[in-house]
UniProtKB/TrEMBL annotation:
PROSITE patterns for the chain: HTH_MARR_1, HTH_MARR_2
Upper lineage: Bacteria, Pseudomonadati, Pseudomonadota, Betaproteobacteria, Burkholderiales
Keyword DNA-binding: yes
Keywords for the protein's UniProt record, in alphabetical order: DNA-binding, Transcription, Transcription regulation
UniProt name for this protein: MarR family transcriptional regulator
Domain of life: Bacteria
Residue intervals of the HTH marR-type domain: 1-115
Family matches, as InterPro entries: HTH_MarR-typ (IPR000835), MarR/SlyA-like (IPR039422), Tscrpt_reg_MarR-type_CS (IPR023187), WH-like_DNA-bd_sf (IPR036388), WH_DNA-bd_sf (IPR036390)
Length: 126
């Protein structure tokens, strides 16, 4: 996944932050902790790199000045339009030639596995 992003100086986590901001608009930084399942320090590094590159703007959130609102910048929008979609590339290469019925089975199995893993990570360890 990172291979197709390397020429742009991005990693997969940075790509996902840009994807979220480009598709859903400004987002409070803390919302990315759950979305990305990363530690606060890791998220700060990812966001800091995007801010430093000029792709994301970080401002105080209007409802809570202690929180940071993230917004994609015009430079970030221009980059976003150029970026390949690594998920699309992975799916294309991984499932090329898989029939529709088999693909439905793959999706069902992976959704079930993801649901069980997510439950275990969020609830099962308590």
């Amino acid at each position: 996944m990172d291979t197709c992003l390397r020429p742009y100086g991005l990693g997969s986590t940075q790509w996902y932050v840009l994807w979220k901001l480009a598709n859903n608009g400004p987002t409070v930084q803390r919302d990315f902790l759950d979305l990305l399942q990363v530690e606060k320090a890791t998220l700060s590094q990812v966001i800091g790199a995007l801010v430093q590159k000029g792709f994301v703007e970080q401002t105080p959130a209007s409802e809570d000045q202690r929180q940071r609102m993230l917004t994609i910048t015009p430079a970030g929008h221009r980059l976003w339009k150029e970026l390949p979609d690594p998920i699309e590339l992975i799916l294309k290469h991984s499932f090329d030639g898989v029939g529709e019925a088999d693909m439905a089975t793959v999706v069902r199995v992976l959704q079930g596995a993801t649901k069980r893993l997510t439950y275990r990570l969020t609830q099962g360890s308590k």
